[in-house]
Amino acid sequence: MIEETTTLKASRRQPAGARVGIPPRQMDFHMDATNRYFYDDNATATLFFAMLSSWFPPGERFFMNSVRNYRDLVQDVRLKDQVSGFMGQEAIHGREHDRLNQLLEQRGIDLRFPVAAAKLGLGLLERLPKSTQIAATTFMEHFTALLAEDLLENPEFAEKADPEMIKLWQWHAFEELEHKAVAYDVYELVGNSRIERATAAAAVVVTMVPAVFLSWAWLVAREGKATDIRDIRKGLNLMLGPQGFVTGILPKLPLFLAKHFHPAQHDTSALEAKWAKAMFGDNGFLNTYFKNRSAVMETAVH
Ligand SMILES: [Fe+2]
Ligand SMILES: [Fe+2]
Known about the structure:
This protein is mainly alpha-helical and 302 residues long. The chain is built from twelve helices and no strands. One fe (ii) ion binds next to helix 3 and helix 7.
């Protein structure tokens, strides 16, 4: 009886997403002690990551809203829990990146232009029909999951990044893989038109690619590095060179346009299992930052 009561209490406390492997982990990172140029002591590359960080809170709100529009279509209990997990994870990502963005602003890294550019681009996407908006989300989730895989698979990131700062990015990357199929599975309920997916992907590219280059250049100029050719050349190479962070995922982007595409076809389960153990296992290196670990882990046991 006592055991039953304990189990019941644990299940009441469990976040729904945790039941289906998408737990909303309440994390509290310590970013204050990090270097200003937290990626390879390079301003240009660091500012690329700063731009991404400034885009996550509004971007993730767009993702959540586009899925929320169709939440009522979800009848399957498992998918309902997955949607809860997705919402919870994205909300916490936004919150932690907001904290990082505030720190960057305190350090004089001016994020106003990239934030305005992202909001303008996302505002244009919000004018599309709701089904095209969720299709756009599935494309951006595909892109994010590929970047996440790249970041976790390539040991170079941990070597080049500030050891404290990389933890936030590794956690975010890992959770992007955990929930990578959720928006897509909701879009399946909306009808999943290949033509609409292609249209949405094109709309994302047309609105967001110019925003990337304008925002990045603006950040570099505001940092006083517009004439630091060495820094710029190195940073461009780190992001867009033959072995660059973004370059590696480009060949995999068109997978999204395949007739029978599904995010789970590109299997990352072994990579996820490896990182789950390293981050949140018995001696996981993120356990001290993981505030609701007991609730999530109790869930995992039942
Ligand atoms: Fe996220
Ligand atoms: Fe995501």
